[in-house]
């Protein structure tokens, strides 16, 4: 991503005097607004004292969507940039209309919880670590459908952990997503380099019903066959 950019221009100290970044509140509100038309509920991974959860709750207003907020509330299990183990440890917040799911994802993200949550319209991934983000994504996979939104809070944090987790998961599952937005942000984990919040939307899976008879057999040859093949390759690749 950064190959053609001078290294000093990625330093927050250089950039924060030159650019305006969208506040996290605006990004979360936008995601909630975009998720309104998408069937399903909202899940947040990484809650801490609930600042972001309250923003989600307020933005949701009277919608029937439910919010599930998942965190161990024991803080980070691994060092993350300049943040020590245990950073963010706190008591679970109490937020009306939000179900708090307390526990390490590895224990708390169960099939029973998946059955309760059902389809997910919007997942906010803010658990920083590669292991935690991977665990959340794997659990989420069967709950996602066309239109589901995935927001990452610090894609380029320590060794690009969220980015690597997303890329490995995309590779493993083959689930197709498009990056529909990307917002710059101050460095994560109190590092010094610019970071970003990308927003992905799932476009694979149930976007179009898979044809029972392969398109190539239905429109063998001809101009229509070529168009059908290209459309099929785009959607089901
Ligand atoms: C950056 S904080 C979340 C901040 C919050 N979203 C906000 O904006 O106010 C990251 C949180 O992820 C939680 N976390 C990280 N890995 C986890 C795991 N494997 N299981 C449960 N919680 C985890 C930590 O406890 C921490 O509270």
Automatic annotation (TrEMBL):
Q: Which UniProt keywords apply?
A: Methyltransferase, Transferase
Look at the named UniProt entry and state the broad enzyme category this protein falls under. transferase
Q: Which InterPro entries match?
A: SAM-dependent_MTases_sf, TylF_MeTrfase
UniProt record, GO biological process: methylation
EC number, UniProt record = 2.1.1.-
The molecular function terms in GO held by this entry are:
methyltransferase activity
The record's annotation in SUPFAM superfamilies points to: S-adenosyl-L-methionine-dependent methyltransferases
PANTHER family the record matches: MACROCIN O-METHYLTRANSFERASE (PTHR40036:SF1)
Q: What's the protein here called?
A: TylF/MycF/NovP-related O-methyltransferase
